[in-house]
Amino acid sequence: MRERQASRGARRAREFESFVAGAAGRLLHAATLLTAEAADDNPRACRLLTEALAHTYAHWDRLHGEDPYAYARRRLAGRFDRGSWRPVGVLGRARPAPSGVLAALSPRERLVLVLRLYEGVAEEQTAALLDLPPERVRVLCDRATAALTHPRGRTAAVGGPTAAPPRAGTGEAAGARRRAEGRRG
Asked: In the chain, where are the structural domains located?
């Protein structure tokens, strides 16, 4: 009986090691994108990955028939979503400010963007994972994409100092053009 349990435990460990060898790199990259840390200095991302993999290993025997990568990704996203709103890090120390390309986005926008665009998770699945309506997921993804594509437009929408120039063909653009021409004459 003990030999069978030991054999099952060894098989379980080999299966999980194989899974980690194939999935850990992509999961770490997703975690690094979520935390907006530099790829070579990502302690929060490493912690997220470790927690997700530990939880996946603890439930490994119950995952038969389920994709272990999808399970680990759900754990990673859920942990980030629950922990990202707190301004204080481990041991009460302030977290360092995010510095990556996605640092300009809110944690929820980063999470939706990473799940939807990097991981390719469907809108409905992302909504279910985050307990949000699909419309909210769509808005968050669109806003995050627009902020990365047109960084000036993000502050303009909030009424900041870097308003986008008026579009050609609008009354505002025509008025600006007439005022400019009047100054030249």
From this structure: 2-149
